[in-house]
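Recall the central idea of this unit: under ordinary conditions, the amino acid sequence of a chain determines the structure it adopts. In this exercise we apply that idea directly, starting from the sequence alone.
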Amino acid sequence: MTVTATFHDLKGASVFITGGGSGIGASITDGFLAQGAKVAFVGRSDATGFADEMEAKHGTRPLFIQCDITDTTALQAAIQTSADAHGPITTLVNNAANDKRHTTGEVDSDFWDWMMAVNLKAYFFACQAVLPQMQSAGFGSIINFSSISYMMGNAGYPLYTAANSGINGMTRSLAREFGPDKIRVNALAPGWVLTQKQKDMWVTEEGLAAHLDRQCLKDTLDPQDIVDGVLFLASKTSKMMTGQALVIDGGVVVTG
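Accordingly, the structure predicted from this sequence is:
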């Protein structure tokens, strides 16, 4: 990835990222390390090799903790492990999600519970765990990944869009509750970012052309575009921005 801006206040910052070993999350880990932050991340799959790669690149090893974020006890224990290693967490990035395709008719109670556990419940309990740490530090930034999918009214994954809408509402309420503690809570809604997973599973020439036609900006999105937004929201450069949804999608949806 390319460093497009330096956020001096992120040097030495204690950062915790869910899903920070693959996809956009891996780029976010890379981005914070490039700023000199102390990074811990969780993921369900072994990311030791990725941590090795980051250590070789930056000279600083991210702390990888293998964890299923649907296990609330394990997730909150990982957050405490991160704080023990790096000091109180002052930036939380709730990035991990699952946009498994499904129709309304095939949803049963177990699938509902699993989708909400991954895409909404884990976000809340990660926030709950870091808030006392941010209060003790005297400031903090929480960045909750959402998606433009619910804004567009996309079909094909109604539980995912429901969770993403819920993330936006939760973000606003937490921003109001913890603003007096100088804790900022914002959502970030990416558009169609062409990660390798997207290319392997969903991208077709026709589908991509149709999506680009809806964008105001005609370039495709890559992870760097999202990393830059995350770093901005983490930094005190955005110190008076909270309770907002930052949309980075090339201009597909319009908010206001």
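The chain has a mean pLDDT of 94.
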